Fold:
Amino acid sequence: MKVTIYTDGSARGNPDGPGGYGAVIHYVDPKGVLHEKELSKGYERTTNNRMELMAAIAALETLNRPCEVVLYSDSQYLVKAFNEHWIDGWIKKDWKRGKNEPVKNVDLWKRLLEAKKPHQVTFVWVKGHNGHEMNERCDQLATAAADAFQKH
Structure:
């Protein structure tokens, strides 16, 4: 099955403040019917990078069978890690980078690698918010999650 996932994270400009993530999953079932599933969640005291990773993890973990996935994100941090082989390098260097500095968010990178395993995933960077309709929708989801969490 082919699946398209659009993700976004929102730290609301404050790494110690509320944040949320949004993901939209599109797929066509065997009868040819298009389905859309939206995920939105708020988190406390985390960074935008972590939320971008969590959005991708949540979306991939939602898929209940192996799929051919195209995952769109406006996070260079998420997309470049796979497209420029940073992950392979980090694993080979025992999750260190550059001058033996530890890689941040190793817990989430490992979880993302597990979530990705059963699928064939292509990561695509959507540059900023330059009008990509579903990226804008994910940004709305992420912002709504952050706002909802902030009210508690």
Observations:
- The CA atoms of residues 42 and 148 lie 7 Å apart.
- The chain has five helices and seven strands.
- The first strand starts at residue 2 and ends at 10.
